[in-house]
């Protein structure tokens, strides 16, 4: 009798625990809040502002952790290596596609995109953006989220006063930049990044591609000291010597942008994401005096425009239900409606044709057609998206800066860079 | 020494029985086993003090020694967090690669030049300021408080402030220095000839007050009777400085120098935000290289080798100071 009573009590206890467990599991599924590791580009703040709407529209909460580039890399890599599943969605710089793909830390999205293609409408996304912001060797490891085009911004008032039209080729840009440089007045014709490291490497790679150069050869091996690369570095150095502000050899993105906004420099190639800030009277002295056009290629070089930006990846270490929730949020964030909202909030990145053609957005940002045209003929691989990219960028960052500082000549610097790059690839 | 715990000379010691007696805190007889009543008192005292310091020893082993050992072991591997499948034991290959790399050799030279330049200038300026502020006056107290402001600014902010000031295109100092021909066209930070010296000057601005504070504390601890007696005997100010102030302050001076040498060897933030090691390799130091290898490329093997190199450099410099302090102590002992 006593035994029976114990058994009954045990059954009741077990049933209660099971019931509570099921309830808790159900509540957990309904109450998922995803952690998003975001770069502190303008889209980060815009995405954070939409957190409440994300919960309302998708039923999934989002918590956006906005970080600088170094912090983002360190935290997400530690999360991947330690399999701690701290972040569910990760904003991925498109140049890191190779690293992400070979590391195996994020899930492939091909099957999900195929499954939900009616909802996603992939035809509305520019093919170059779809490819370069998340595809590596045929596998989609990230969904494109915030695409940038490399554009030329120039001082329309200075060009008009000098009787010049917007430069259509790199040679014209070089000639105009020299013509508009007046050192006595503190006016310079051109500005670009010169600081050692990623800053100078990324800017030079842009000019290098426009002048027909390439960092890797057709087999994907380093070809850093090719004649066309040496020639493009010579042009870059000449622009620095003849048309750039004296301090530009030490400029990173902030210094370069400030130089243009303060009216010191007449032309600059830059990511389209920053274009809206030149018209902001709180930040800029050139409001109403600038124009945005496509980046000019070198004479005879293929007409192609640099593409960069960020994709959204799903951490492979999180549970299946969180992966499904993450995909739901990614579909929402990359939908036409939310892309427009992000643009209105100052996100600055574009992936969809519908956003570029949107009348309301065009009224706010009149340079959108330039971005659209650049996307149509975009090149997302002018910075090689290989696993060794960070090392290659560092090698180039040292070599180009050494040339600009007068410590080396283009051929010697790129010969040295080539041997270093080969050693990295051999490793 | 007697069983009662009192020796014929030296301070009185506690009776051994106080440690050996089993009682309510005997911890299952462990204490009685560790401290058998028959053992000599000195051995039991040593064991007792060892038990007291054991937590600290364990902490140091876990938080300093163990990571250092693991770091040293990593330096013998080709180990990249992003390419773990390629991990392999390579012996001293990472060290050989560093030594044969001209950029690393420049980084070692720059690190030593930076440490020597910054610490010497900070010491001279800090000592001069400490002597100026020695007397306890209101103006000195106010000056001391104001002079300490740079120490409270983070090195990262210092770098950003100086960068804005020194930009030759629109910086308040940089612009006029360029126009007046004091700096080159590319400014102090943009020229390979002046970049490292400028970084040294920024460090001197920030850390001289700390040096001054430590030395001022040393000056205040000198008994005034020493100096008054010397003055009565007719010693000049220079004689008082060289024969009383400097000898009495030697341990303080060495300690201040040691602290700054260790700290200056790890310079990173200011360089990272101003020049990122450039132009060329002009301001490339070991810490910049280590952070780049470890946190940008996740190349743990190479980063560990650079860290081991830095550890060796700092250990050599610290040993020199410890030898000097010991020599001073022996000389000063009666």
* Tally of individual domains of chain A: 2
Q: Please outline the major beta sheet of chain B.
A: 2 strands, antiparallel
**Rg over CA atoms of chain A:** 25 Å
This entry's quaternary arrangement is heterodimer
- Please identify, by name, the CATH architecture of chain B: Orthogonal Bundle
CATH topology of the largest domain in chain A: D-Maltodextrin-Binding Protein, domain 2
What integer value in Å does the Rg of chain B equal?
A: 27 Å
Helical content of chain B stands at over 70%
List how many beta strands of chain A DSSP finds: 10
CATH class of chain B: Mainly Alpha
Please tell me the CATH architecture of the largest domain in chain A by its name: 3-Layer(aba) Sandwich
Mean pLDDT of chain B: 86
Summarize this structure as a short list of keywords or feature phrases.
heterodimer, A: about 425 residues, alpha/beta, D-Maltodextrin-Binding Protein, domain 2, 2 domains, 8-stranded mixed β-sheet, two-stranded antiparallel ribbon, 20 helices, 10 strands, about 15% strand, globular, B: about 325 residues, mainly alpha, MetI-like fold, two-stranded antiparallel sheet, 16 helices, about 70% helix, about 0% strand, flat, disordered N terminus
Can you tell me about this structure?
The complex is a heterodimer of chains A (427) and B (334). Chain A is an alpha/beta fold and 427 residues long. Chain A folds into two domains: 33-148 and 308-379, 3-Layer(aba) Sandwich (D-Maltodextrin-Binding Protein, domain 2); 150-306 and 382-426, D-Maltodextrin-Binding Protein, domain 2, CATH 3.40.190. Helices cover 50% and strands 14% of the residues of chain A. Chain A contains 20 helices and ten strands. Chain A has helices at 2-30, 42-49, 51-58, 69-82, 97-103, 110-115, 117-120, 127-132, 156-161, 170-179, 198-210, 227-243, 253-261, 320-333, 336-344, 353-357, 359-364, 368-376, 389-404, 410-426, and strands spanning 33-39, 61-67, 89-93, 135-136, 139-140, 143-155, 267-271, 290-294, 305-314, 378-379. The longest helix of chain A has 29 residues, at 2-30. Chain B has a single domain (98-332), classed as MetI-like (MetI-like fold). Chain B has helices spanning 17-20, 30-34, 41-74, 93-100, 102-132, 138-147, 149-152, 155-166, 172-179, 187-190, 195-220, 224-232, 237-265, 269-274, 286-296, 300-332, and strands at residues 77-78, 88-89. Chain B is an all-alpha fold. Residues 1-22 of chain B have low confidence and may be disordered. Chain B starts with 16 loop residues before the first helix and ends with a helix. Chain B has a two-stranded antiparallel sheet with strand order 1-2. Chain A binds chain B through residues 70, 73-74, 77, 81, 99, 102-103, 186, 194-197, 199, 245-250, 252, 255, 259, 262, 264, 387, 390-391, 394, 398, 401-402, 404-408, 427, and chain B through 78, 81-84, 86, 103, 167-171, 174, 178, 185-187, 189-192, 274-282, 292, 295-298.
